[in-house]
Amino acid sequence: MLTVLAGLLALAATPVAAPAAASDAGYYDAARGLSGARLKGALHDIISTGTTALSYRKVWDALKVTDEDPSNPANVILVYSGTSRSKARNGGGRGDWNREHVWPQSHGPFDTRDTPGTDLHHLRPEDVTINSGRGNKDFDNGGAPVARAPGNRSDADSWEPRDAVKGDVARMVFYMAVRYEGESRLPDLELDDATTHGGTPLLGRRPVLLAWHDRDPVDAFERRRNEIIFERYQHNRNPFIDHPEWVDEVFG
Ligand SMILES: [Ca+2]
Ligand SMILES: [Ca+2]
Prior knowledge:
Elements: H1 2-13, H2 36-48, H3 56-66, E1 68-69, E2 72-77, E3 84-86, E4 97-101, E5 123-127, H4 128-134, E6 138-139, E7 144-145, E8 153-154, E9 158-160, H5 166-179, E10 190-191, E11 202-203, H6 206-215, H7 220-233, H8 239-242, H9 246-251
Parallel strand pairs: 6-9, 10-11
Antiparallel strand pairs: 1-2, 2-3, 4-5, 7-8, 8-9
Helix pairs in contact: 5-6
The structure holds calcium ion (2 copies).
Signal peptide: 1-20
Protein name: Endonuclease I
InterPro entries: Endonuclease-I, His-Me_finger_sf
């Protein structure tokens, strides 16, 4: 009896190493072997089933977990600027961080009462001023350097994020285009090759986003937040973080 108990205690104390894709076992079974539009359709069904939508207020707390600075648990990492800033500085004032919609609400439109408006897979902390500088610009290369956001560039109609998150941004956008297909009176979000400033459910530029995906492969920060969103909040995953090879199948 004591031996059994000791064995159980030893088991309980053994740290469980979590491989990157531990939680997705079986998750993508319905998509295996498919390509093109059929793959996109299967992925849409998978990532739209059994999900939980957050309130916009709850997004504040969730971002403090999903985007925590791995080297300082009191801070979050701001997506474009790369700055580590106190979790407590969430708000709307100068020097605060707020909730950046990587897929802008006007490229729908949708708002913060709608599921895409609170979808953690494309919401990231960013400095209030830099967030408003990005505004609803499409993604493209080029422009002038952005103050206090090293590596970012912007011009009148586009935004180029720093190199370390170019792929992260692309994969967030790819997720949105597959997740939202015009159901429940929501817009069918899709990629295009234009810089439109919104007014349509389209976001560009597709060839640039594909190149960014290739150039900046999936990293540990993305994998970690994908797991947290799946396990703790929305119970759905970003397929393009788990299977980067599907990007070309669906969008190439
Ligand atoms: Ca990256
Ligand atoms: Ca779509």
